[in-house]
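Here is one chain, start to finish.
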Amino acid sequence: MMRKLFCIALLAAAGCCQAAVNDAIRIKDLGKISGWRENALTGYGLVTGLAGTGDSARNKATRQSIANMLSRFDMTVVADDVQSRNVAAVMVTASLSPFARAGDSMDVTITSIGDARSLVGGTLILAPLKAADGRIYALAQGPVSVGGYKYDMNGNVQQKNHPTVASIPAGATVEQGIVNDVTQGRGSVTFVLSEPDYTTASRVAAAINASLGSQLAQAADAAGIEIRIPDAKRARLSDFLMAVENVTVTPDRRARVVINERTGVVVAGGDVRISRVAVSHGELKVSILTDNTVSQPLLVSHGGEGIRTAMVSNSRVEVDERGEAGFVTANGNTVADLVQSLARIKTNTRDIISILRAVKAAGALHADLVVQ
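Its structure:
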């Protein structure tokens, strides 16, 4: 059954890859404009309102944080006097959109950094979120959402997922946006391919020039295409970039065979070729079986001197060899053809993976072999 599903998946992937080669794809699906990236934000905070599942008294940092928080409200409490287990120290993380503006909301993730058992039912107290430059860009606060639980009593524990990780949907408010200048003070923008390739970069530049009717684009390298912005379009840059993004092009693809040894799945494009190769596949199975028996002499019950019970091991070796070895020849075929031939001689998926690796080592597989 696994072999049938494997062959069906391989053939379906081969057909899809062949169709994808013949179909044009929008440029926006191949990469992005340089400067468009999310910015990581990190902050430290306290989650309160826990039902005795917070940090223990051994966490001095948590007790000191509680004392510092109370001092903001004109309450002086020594950190050593704090004994609450309803509070947990957490780290707060978020991703700031490249076009976020002040007042926008974004999701945050909360992770415990102490020995809290669960964050269920807690509320995050106002926590500032900083970027790598040390400036505050957002503030996070609100009730946390935990996709699990953990309850324990008298040595009995019931747990689901990770209750020490939580999230707050739209729990952070952007206080300061990021100004992104995609032109970087120049009269051009750079389009960056997700998968660098000289052929694809050249095709993208040619497609842009053909669509816009002017020599505006030029491939700088395998990953970047420089696109000059006409003077008449600089006042309406968004419209110009929209026209560029919707230009279609047929990208060039590298031949790849992806192997997942854990699940036994092989995915290959339909255009992956194999040179002339012969594959001989046989199987030899050796089994060593041991039977342990107890030897019980009759004179033991009569107290005979020197007579005792003994453990006896009887071993046998069994050799099972397939009557005929599988032999497959391929001349100018594809990976899909080779796999079909191997399936006809009832080769299991694990052996197919080993054969493909051997074909690659022999120099007959003209594709990148990716082993996961």
